[in-house]
Amino acid sequence: MNVVPGGAADGAGDAHVPSVNLGLLGLSVFVLSLLLVLASKYGRLYCNTLCPVGTLLGFLTWLYTLLLPSLSSSGWVPENLILNGPFGITLLKPTELFGMSGMDLWSHSLFWSMLFNIGAYIICSILFNQNEQERDQVHKFIGTFHREDAQRHTERKRLSKPVTTDQFVTLMSKFIGEAEARSALDSYANDQEMAKDGSVSEFDLPKLKRFTEKTLAGSVGGAAARVIVNNFLSDIGSSMESVYDIFSSVRTNLDQNRESLFVRLKASEIINRTLDLHVIMDDLLTLLVKEFKLDVAMVLTRNTAGSYSVFSIQGEEVTGSDLPRWYQDNIPFIDQVYREQKTHFNNDLRQEETAQSLDQTVAEGFISCAHIPILREGEPVIAVLSLLSKSIAGLFTREFIELLSNLAGQLAQAITIVHEVEAKQVERNQKEAALLQTAKITRDMEIAQQIQRSFLPDSAPIIAGMDLAGRCISAAHVGGDYYDFILRTDRIVDIVIADVSGHSVGAALVMSEVRTLLRSEAKSLRNPHAILENLNIQLYDDLTRSELFITMFYAKFDVNTGELSYSNAGHNNPVLQRASDDTLCQELDTEGLILGVKKDVLFEERSVTLVSGDVLLFYTDGLTEACDKNGNMFGTAGVYRHLKTCLLMSAENIIDSFFDTIHDFVGSQNLQDDISLVVVKIL
Amino acid sequence: MEFKTECSGAVTVLFVKEDRLDANNSEELKVEMRRIFDSGVKDLVIDLKEVLFIDSSGLGVLVSGYKNASILHGSLKLSNLQSQVKSMFELTRLQRVFDIFITVDDALQSYT
After folding, report:
1. A residues 551-590 near B, CB within 8 Å?
2. Alpha helices in A503-574 (DSSP H)
3. Cα torsion at A449, A452, A454, A455 (round to 10°)?
């Protein structure tokens, strides 16, 4: 058939023309179809809407600009429509659309058809996005132009339901015969070193699927093979789904997700149920293993030496707190987690470089792992939560890691609380121990005080011509004060005041010894200096052993003569206030030494004659060393000053007066030492 | 209780860095002296320059230190006694027992 351009214009009514026209019509349809295919291939813009719209618009334009004039020339359409346009609108003339003239009928028609077709196609592409299914569709058709190898190593999809190799064989048998199918699969299995039992690891399934598709493509063509395999899979309830979809349970919005909420709820139940960290960890790890199909979950802690021990583990038996042997090659990553306080995870351990550094873990069959730091915001890492899976690559999605980090945070909080509770318990125990200890010491003190009290005379003896009184007030710490009146005859009385250093049961016991010795010494009728010398010798060894010493003032008073003979062993000097001269205070002192320092000590003895109205005050250091709130001591000056004011009082009242004064002086302060006072007033 | 210990030849000088030597802290001085004697030191000088107050407990500790030194055939000497401390030593006549020096150097001199 000879096609002459412009032939339609010249040869209207020619019997051959319609057939030529029909040929050209067919050619233009072919060009349009080719256009569509090419645009789809290179543009990858296929979309549900744009395909029909583009085609329809192009086809309508073709009908209007080419078919209509052709039919008109055959007399089937009013000629007026062609010459003047519909309704007399010249712009819509089928042969000169939108005023385009000067082109022959074919070029004109082809131009407008292509313009509408491509224009609609592009506009729709921009206006409407492809949905997933459409992308798939595009991939099925358009991917046929690409080699499969390009995508081999990026596995982002998995089969939602496990499929056995037998099922693939069954599928292929329908198209290429069973024997062929078997041998094809066997050769594939040999290449891939697959298990003969027909079970296929999840990771291998996509590859096997592609292999099936390729095998079928040989018989039915690539696109058809894909459709067949996908239909087959969807029939048995399995389909390719995004790997990340398997954890739709932990996906996107944690708060809204039911399963994630369930895990978090369970976790917080576990954490709040007990304060036993081992129980908490065990239960939590069990929960994770169960809910997320993990193979090993453990919590590791690092000691000060930098080595790790297993605090809790699920899914693997370990003895003691040793790490599983295969786990050792993960240690550098745990170090990193401790150092950077960030989660480390690996979704495919079989990748070449990872496989080398984690060869033991990989050999053990693990294919993904995550190590999550257990820490509180802004604080150092307490422990690491380590999770490993043997079955699921790509398990640790961002959302899953977020959930795990959240759980780790809760765990850190729980650990901190437990530690605080434990610290409080320890503190409480210590306090109780301290209280017990204090109670014991207090008890000791009470015993010492009771002993001491029992040695002090209940009351002073009543002797004509003299007024005698003595009293001891105890401080918070029991002192070693001692005083005694020993009647030699009804006219002669020995007055002794002493202070055993140290505040203890030991001091009280020494005092009891002193008392016994004194009582027997006094009966010996010896003079004060001799009594002190003897006492010093007898007490020396015991005092040395107990690291104590005694200060003592020993006086003997004869009421008949008024003579007071005395000896001092380093005790505070008694103060004599004469009635005759109230300006003069006299201290009674002799040479000597405190008892218990040296064995052979000579004590001087002196005597003084007391007359009516004279007052003699014996005291212990608690009186002069009593402090006011500013730390000032009452001192000997205070003693003199006060003694002058109470010359006219009875002995008992003088003591009352002193104690009142001391109480006023110390105010709210506690007395640091016992105060003993003995007053002798000559009547 | 705060101390400072210095060695001068075979003699150890123990500076008591407290203003009170009483029932509340004298036990610590006792422990410290025992430690020094246990370490093999026989001659000890205790400097009381900073001690403004001493009570019978403080005296007791010094006395037991003195006795321990005597048992070891060593000595315990004192230096820098402040007025209250000095009067306590006079009252108890312990100034006759102890060798008491005005300064540490004087005390160390006595050993040469």
Report:
1. 551, 570-573
2. 505-523, 528-545
3. -170
SS3 B15: strand
Q: Quick: pLDDT tens for B51-96.
A: 999 988 888 889 989 988 988 899 999 999 999 899 989 988 898 8
The confidence score (pLDDT) of residue A258 equals: 67
Q: A585-642, pLDDT tens digit by residue?
A: 889 999 999 999 888 899 999 999 999 999 999 999 889 988 888 888 899 999 999 9
Q: Say which of B57, B93, B96 has its CB closest to residue A502.
A: B57
The reply to whether residue A572 touches residue B91, judged by beta carbons under 8 angstroms, is yes
Q: What is the pLDDT of residue A497?
A: 95
The stretch A500-515 carries a mean pLDDT of 81
Min Cα distance B67 → chain A (Å) is 7
Domains of chain B by residue range: 3-109
* Candidates 3.30.70.100, 3.30.750.24, 3.20.20.370, 3.20.20.140; CATH matching B3-109: 3.30.750.24
Read off the pLDDT of residues A131-148 as tens digits, 9 standing for 90 and up: 656 565 555 554 444 444
The yes-or-no verdict on residue A49 having pLDDT over 70 is no
Nearest residue in chain A measured CA to CA from B91: A570
Element of type H or E holding B47? strand B43-47
- Residue A527 burial by Cβ neighbours in a 10 Å radius (0-12, 13-18, 19+): middle
What amino acid occupies position A87? F
Contact call for residues A389 and A295 (beta carbons, < 8 A) = yes
- Beta strand B20-21 pairing with B53-54: parallel
Q: Across the interface, do A593 and B93 touch by the CB < 8 Å criterion?
A: yes
Query: Can you give the pTM of this predicted structure?
Result: 0.51
